[in-house]
C-alpha cells in the first residue's frame, strides 16, 4: 500500500509501511470571465529535486546539468504529466456549496525548470462556468492514495474578480495520524484491508483553499 506516511510505520501490520514517493509544491489560479463566472483553473506543480532529476535524466534533458532548459527542451518536456488515463481527476477536487464541480482534462500544458526542479502548468475548464457569489468555493489538491504529496506553497491567485477572500485551511496532521494509528492497531497483521474498510487518507491530509467573493 502507498498511502501511509512514515510516522505510521511503527503501527502498521507487517509489510504495509509506505510513504509518499513524489512531493509537489502546488499553485492555483482561479480564472473568471467578464460576467463573473468561474471558467477555468490553472494548476502549477513544482516537483521535488529527486523526482525532477530522475525524470530529466530519463528524458535526456539538461545534459549540462545547469538546471536550465533550452526552449527546445522545454517544448519536449511540456505535457509530460498531462497524458491522463480515463477517470483520473488530476489530483484536484473543487466543490461549490458542497457540490463537486466537473473539470476538463489538462489544456495548454507547459514545463520548465527552476534551480533544477521541474515546474509544470496546465489549464482546466470548469463545466458550466458557475457563479460563486454567496457560496464557498473549495479547492483541494490531493492524491487519494497519498502516493504523491501536494503542498499548497506556491501562489493562489484570482484572475478576473476583485474583492475575493482566499483562506488556506491546513489539515490537523497530528490528529489525523492519531486516529489512523488507533485504527491500525486494531487490525491483525494478516487482515484484508478492503474487508476492514480502511479509508484512503489523501484527502484527510490535504490543504483546502476556500474562496469567497462579494455578490456582484
TrEMBL record:
It holds the Pfam family DUF1007. This is DUF1007 family protein.
